[in-house]
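FAQ
Q: What does a multi-component entry look like?
A: The components come first, one per line:
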Amino acid sequence: MDPKNSRFSTQISHLALDIGGTLIKLVYFSPNGDNCEDGSIVVGNGCSVVQGRLCFAKFETRKIDDCLDFIRFNILQHSGVQHTNGTARDKLSVKATGGGAFKFADLFKEKLGIVFDKEDEMHSLVCGVNFLLKTVPREAFTYLDGQKEFVQIDHNDLYPYLLVNIGSGVSMIKVDGDGKYERISGTSLGGGTFLGLGKLLTKCKSFDELLELSHQGNNRVIDMLVGDIYGGTDYSKIGLSSTAIASSFGKAISDGKELEDYQPEDVARSLLRMISNNIGQIAYLNALRFGLKRIFFGGFFIRGLEYTMDTISVAVHFWSRGEAKAMFLRHEGFLGALGAFTSYKDQSHSTELKPHHHTVERAVLKCSDDDSFRHIPVTANVNDGEAIECSINLV
Amino acid sequence: MAGRGDDEHDPILDEAKSSERDMAPSAPPGTSIHRSGSRPQLDLSKAEIQGNFEERDPTILLPNQSDDISHLALDIGGSLIKLLYFSRHEDYSNDGDKRKKTIKERLGLSNGNLRSYPVLGGRLHFVKFETHKITECLDFIHSKQLHRRDPYPWSSKTLPLGTGVIKVTGGGAYKFADLFKERLGVSIDKEDEMHCLVSGANFLLKAIRHEAYTHMEAEKEFVQIDSNELYPYLLVNVGSGVSIIKVDGEGKFERVSGTNVGGGTYWGLGRLLTKCKSFDELLELSQKGDNSTIDMLVGDIYGGMDYSKIGLSASTIASSFGKAISENKELEDYRPEDISLSLLRMISYNIGQISYLNALRFGLKRIFFGGFFIRGHAYTMDTISFAVHFWSKGDMQAMFLRHEGFLGAMGAFMSYEKHGLDDLMSHQLVERFPMGAPYTGGNIHGPPLGDLNEKISWMEKFVRRGTEITAPVPMTPSKTTGLGGFDVPSSRGSALRSDASALNVGVLHLVPTLEVFPLLADPKMYEPNTIDLSDQGEREYWLKVLSEHLPDLVDTAVASEGGTEDAKRRGDAFARAFSAHLARLMEEPAAYGKLGLANLLELREECLREFQFVDAYRSIKLRENEASLAVLPDLLEELDSMSEEARLLTLIEGVLAANIFDWGSRACVDLYHKGTIIEIYRMSRNKMQRPWRVDDFDAFKERMLGSGGKQPHPHKRALLFVDNSGADVILGMLPLAREFLRRGTEVVLVANSLPALNDVTAMELPDIVAGAAKHCDILRRAAEMGGLLVDAMVNPGDGSKNDSTSAPLMVVENGCGSPCIDLRQVSSELAAAAKDADLVVLEGMGRALHTNFNAQFKCEALKLAMVKNQRLAEKLINGNIYDSVCRYEPPSVSEM
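Then the predicted structure of the entire assembly, as tokens:
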């Protein structure tokens, strides 16, 4: 194989995508600084180790052109790949997962000359989480009563666990080991429902706007609480406090109010609580089925929002009577993309991310919207995931 | 008593009481039964239909109705108030009938009371109101003075104001306690919500035979729950919120889970998003919706492909409302129909899933869904069933309850002490669908109309509103497209009511005197109906038969009342009401529970009675009885001249031949125009050529006469279920009865309690027997012994005493008023008579073919009938019209 050629394809393979119904998540490797040509360090066995960082970016799926531009200008060009229209080399293969890996395959081939190497969605998710939990310290944390607490995961005691990925919809996966997993459940009430219903109800334009709104709202205005039914008293016999939600949006039944009469903040809050609570409950019930004590929540819906995490944690805590714990991941939104990224190792050992051998020195809390992205011509949300400093092996 | 003043001093009745035998021929035989039966009359004075008549379900208020209403219970939820009240029967046993008394003594029945608790006969009515219109509910209670009744059903004394206590459950029991005190002067006795739900569900599941049903892919199927194997189960009550309860037994339950995404969420969000004014409107919208415009489907994410690896089809919803994210549409750009459907699917599916997960936790296979969110809505039930079926891989069953909305109210009602309801069994409950039922759908609002004039004008008004209510709407079976991917629910396009698939809830008649026929080999497995009307072809055929027979029936009924203008008006109203029932059933076969021919025929008789056609065939019956009695002596003489063997055959032939006289059969009605009774009988008997289509005569003969010189022992007691008046009973069954009596076998003639077509009733039989006894000593002696001729032919010391071999002839009523018989619900009198019986003879199409053809008995059984319907003949015996059935069965060997 032509070494030059090999290098190119190697570098392009440092990119992986997860194209979901709502968002496109990107993970790519950015070599460190101004080392020699590609910053590679030759280690024994003829292998070279490249120091660098894993960077994360995301785009809305409906603005896929922004994503294409980003890849064209920030990744392909940086890697020295010049053929922007896919005329020269059609063989550039990139790992991709999510439904969009099928839906947009032709588009990527046409616009960027990239051929998707499709990775199974669930498989990618699981690989991503396993990678993070094993290699990145302080990746997982609990969130209860406003307290964020990192959890030290013992690598040998990681499995089994329940993975709840909240994207547009929700997938629940029981993970028993590396590559050993099963999608056991899911629900269609997910992030897409929050944003979709939220848009219809509040005229919010974006997810973040809606979340921001929900932060300021009061769900009691529109939810029917136990106290509303019981005239302010608890239904203590079955452990329901008067502030427990008896029926989400239930007060809208009898108020004689129109949508316009409600504050968008309150509507957003009710919606968020309804969906978070429901996810927490279904997750708990599934964990219970298989005797799983740990539930990891991921997916872009959570995006580190305290109130969301709090609601989910409370739901899990309430239903399990404190037996099960809800845990969150710092790279929650990029699980699938990371998993796709790690799957490169399966290809004839040309590239290998080596998390197992402490090649990942540390994960920095530094946001990656620093100098390396100053020249990004299009806007991309790159500050969500934290860059992971790591090294990868090159042949 | 109000509403029936005209009957109060009816001399005929008084006479009937004093002297059964002398009952004037013109006396309506049904009248006295009607009075002592199970129908207290309502006071309809000042009855009015409230609100605009253009409304779908006008409220019917009967302000002056107050008789016998004993108590009520309420369930006040966040959205709806469910009210249940009880009205008492008149005292049942006080009929002062000497004949009955004699028979009861004979059968060892002590005054009719078999139980220690007070006999609770009465009716349960189910009513609902919207919670935000609580004043309507208070007015309703006040107008009927429901709150001033002693809370114990056997007492009907009025309580002084301010002392009443009513049982209420639901959150509103707390919230509205003051309001009740203020407006009605009653205190509320708060009953725990979960407890009420559970005891209500337990009662309904045990007491009502086809309370539970499954609903998959638009197919309803009723499930018979064995009350011994009811527990444990999961009860999911979907009200504003959802409660999930594990039930382990009577009073043993635990609320294990719940969800705040429930009916209130659907309605609340739906209102905000669609501007619908009511829950039903929102639900109706969903019928025409397409959720794929707003939900993100797996196919949307995968570019139209399935994610088959994990079993997700392209039409599976990946994210409810997910499509609203990425399209630059405003709320106004979406169809409210689509939004409603999307919401409905989201919530129903979620409820199904959470219920499944909870059932799994506790290893429960059965999940019952109740609560007002479901309200018999086909798509909701399909979605929930689908979720349960899908997640459990078919291991669990989602079931729904016909009284779904009334579980809590029922439970609150149960919490009154000493009501005796706990002991009620399914055979003691009869559900009736009043004539308003097809119009009001599942929405019961106010009690059924009772007054004749009110009923007629109600019918007329409804019919004036348009023809759509009587026109059957064709059914379109809805399809599914794989996993969760239902197509748009089929729109029925019916203006009949808001939800075409709603189930009716009838008025529950509690009749503690009904019992299971003790000679059934396996009551649990017993199914009265022979033809399965869940088969569409069969159903359509029989509904059509009933529909075609209707004009003749109306003519006969009107003529029976003298053909007056009033009778014609009533006849018209009856025809409309019954047509509406038929139309409703054509469209929604399970509307009144599991449908069988027996129920259909009973419904028709009930409908006739509602319009006070007490006995449409009375004059025909009398005429035919007279004509038949006239030829009976000749027939008996002819029989007596025969050898034993020839006589037995001729008797059976005679029963079969005489069974041709049947006004329920279209074919036979045509025949009557061609000849006299005796001509037809002779012709018919002469045509009886063996072998018959079903011919067990030889086996029966061997049992009766023995073979090889061995004399078999005679039967101890034979129960003869008779069919029609006239030749059928007089020339067919009486001679057969006489043959049994002659052999020393006691004979009990079993006949209807209430008239149905030209069937002979238990009230009419003594007269007929008396008439026959004039010509025959055997019958006379036996009838005297059986107490049938109490006042007649007074000859004390004669008869029984000096003839030890003679056996009595008795008559008992079977407890029903239908041409068919469901042997799970017979009179206690019949049940008692069955104790010593070792032979059951069922005669006629209704009792031996339409029902009970396949019934197995603990004793010998003889089923005799002439098939007077070509289709039935083909279906049942692979034969033709006028073929005969003589089925003799030895006792069914039971492993128990």
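Q: Is there any commentary attached?
A: Sometimes. For this entry: Chain A has two domains: 3-122+334-394, 191-222+262-329.
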